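Retro notes, item 3 of 5
We never archived the inputs for the LLP complex last cycle. Fixing that now. Sequence and ligand:
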Amino acid sequence: MRFPIEKFSNIDTPFYYYDVELLKKTLDCAKSEAGKYKGFHVHYAIKANFNPRLLEIISSTGLGADCVSGGEVRAALNAGISPEKIVFAGVGKTDKEIAFSLDNGIFCFNVESIPEIEAIETLAAEHNVTAQVAIRINPNVGAHTHSNITTGLAENKFGINYEQIDEVIDFIEKMEHIQLIGLHFHIGSQILVMDDFIALCGRINELQELLYDTRGIVLPHINVGGGLGIRYDAPDKYPVPDFELYFATYANNLKLHEGQQVHFELGRSLVAQCGSLITRVTYIKHGTCKKFAIVDAGMNDLVRPALYDAYHHIENLTSDKEGEIYDIVGPVCESSDVFCKDHKIAESKRGDILAIRSAGAYGEAMAFGYNCRELPKAVLSTDL
Ligand code: LLP
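Structure as it came back at the time:
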């Protein structure tokens, strides 16, 4: 990615910089690769980045939305995403969020417990509408990723256990204002090993067979969740994820009944590589053994390294000197406020501008105001 560094010098740091051209290229690629298969639908997982200006671009490409709160449903609608393309997941949907979604006629609730189904039934009856739901099943497939972002294992707050499916379907059949339209799965995030998705397909096939054999049921919608990872280690070499392989993996491994639609909830893979957190070096501090580059962005701006030990490639945009090893750290009063330990970047000095790469997903969206710090601003390449 090329950064317009001359233009950065007048902008207060830290800020998120989004390369709109790369975003559009990524969205187009995902859309055209999914479009090769009949009945494949992509919903953008808004949790990854809900910046309204990015949402507008995403909405204009015609993708649907995957939401996990009433606020996200509202953000999707405000961006112009059609309610018939909105799915709403989450273990703790409140009455207010359910009512708002029913009023706006969203496509589907991904339901995660019997008490939630009861709440949706009551509210749908009050609003005199029928709610469409998909049951979120825990496929008991472990993804090879960080334990904090694995969700498909049996003992998890998310979803309904594989063994309880009959009980849940029996329960939904008694509801008058709920229509069961599908099954929903999600095994985790930042998955680069296609075998994990193949394992998920295997579980879905087994379950579909079981439902057909024991109850004669074929549900029209299969939602496989999201999770496709990106290459944090090499953002310039792999700016666009391998959507061709990803969708082909599902097309080749899912056994579908005639007319069944497949839904994807992609977050990170659509927005991560187009975003960088731009920060200035405040001080270079020489410790006894280490050198610290203290920057003006902190864990409150990008929490992933502190929360998940996540690696983000960092480069100095204003120095072309020989590389030196630094711990690149923020100003927040927490020892976990470290972006990278023992990282080699061009020799840096106070005032240099650094880019913390691959930060478009779960970066700005997870920023917070600890230490009375301002939330980071966003600059789009089209603003400059
Ligand atoms: N669908 C469901 C039900 C999910 O829970 C998630 C992410 C997605 C779709 C989108 O997954 P993606 O395509 O982005 O992998 N904050 C963490 C990631 C949390 C993911 C939560 N769920 C991080 O920064 O790595």
